[in-house]
Write a structure and sequence with these properties.
Layout lengths: L2 E14 L2 E7 L16 H10 L13 H4 L12 E10 L2 E12 L3 E2 L10 E4 L7 H4 L9 E5 L2 H14 L3 E8 L5 E7 L3 E4 L5 H15 L5 E4 L8 H13 L1
Parallel strand pairs: 6-11
Antiparallel strand pairs: 1-2, 1-3, 3-4, 4-5, 7-8, 8-9, 9-10
């Protein structure tokens, strides 16, 4: 049977970037917000958690410490040291408060292949960049449209309607002649609107909720700067919807 009911109970950081002697408890709720002033280390904690697991059987990005802690002339990160406690179920057996110690001397340990396995999804600041700023298209784009009417797509559409307070009617995937995909949504009386013309905050809400609905149970979903680009009311509704999911 596959491993299930995965959960990070806590993390204790001896030293990591500017964080020293920090303990964070995640055990009480399935949805946790980390808040603090600029430079307090919020993103550092999320980056760290993203790297604690190796990808499961699904095709997932393998987040490695060198992606977030790049060695350079002034920082080799050789004094990094932290421990996570995690729990999981394997068949009939439940394993609780298992400790995994990570550190860097000459290289990060344990080896990446020896990390526990889990579906991890990290959404950083780069997910805030709107398609129109990241796309290379500079002329007319020919698109074919495929409406998404499966149950999960309908849930995503309804959730985005609730969060953004916009009367979407249908969700679609649009593909150009090179098979590149763009989000498409039907809005009356505008008609179909693609991610080439949607607002940055609007696009990010669709990305986050799509991942939240489509990722497997007990996935670890990490969202950095969740409040970026969002009106206060939309942010409150997004957090409410994530808690429901």
């Amino acid at each position: 049977m596959p491993i299930s009911q995965q959960k990070i109970e806590s993390i204790y950081i001896v030293k990591l970037k500017s964080l020293k002697g920090l303990s964070v408890d995640f055990s009480e709720k399935p949805l946790v917000a980390i808040m603090g002033v600029n430079g307090a280390g919020k993103s550092t904690i999320l980056h760290t958690l993203a790297c604690c697991y190796k990808p499961d059987h699904s095709a997932r990005k393998d987040y490695k410490f060198t992606e977030f802690f790049i060695p350079n002339t002034y920082a080799l990160w050789n004094d990094s040291d932290f421990t996570i406690k995690y729990s999981y179920r394997d068949g009939a057996r439940v394993y609780e408060n298992i400790e995994k110690h990570y550190q860097k001397r000459e290289r990060w340990t344990p080896r990446y292949s020896n990390r526990p396995e889990r579906y991890v999804s990290y959404w950083g600041i780069s997910s805030c960049v709107p398609v129109i700023e990241a796309d290379n298209a500079k002329s007319f784009v020919t698109l074919s449209l495929c409406e998404q009417e499966d149950p999960i797509s309908n849930k995503i559409l309804e959730a985005c309607k609730f969060v953004l307070d916009i009367p979407y009617e249908r969700l679609a995937i649009c593909r150009n002649t090179s098979h590149k995909e763009y989000l498409g949504v039907m809005r009356e009386p505008i008609g179909y609107c693609t991610s080439l013309s949607m607002g940055a905050g609007e696009q990010r809400v669709f990305k986050i909720l799509s991942e939240a609905y489509r990722c497997p149970k007990y996935a670890l979903l990490l969202i950095d700067e969740i409040d970026l680009l969002l009106h206060d009311n939309a942010l409150r509704r997004l957090v409410q919807k994530l808690y429901e999911i």
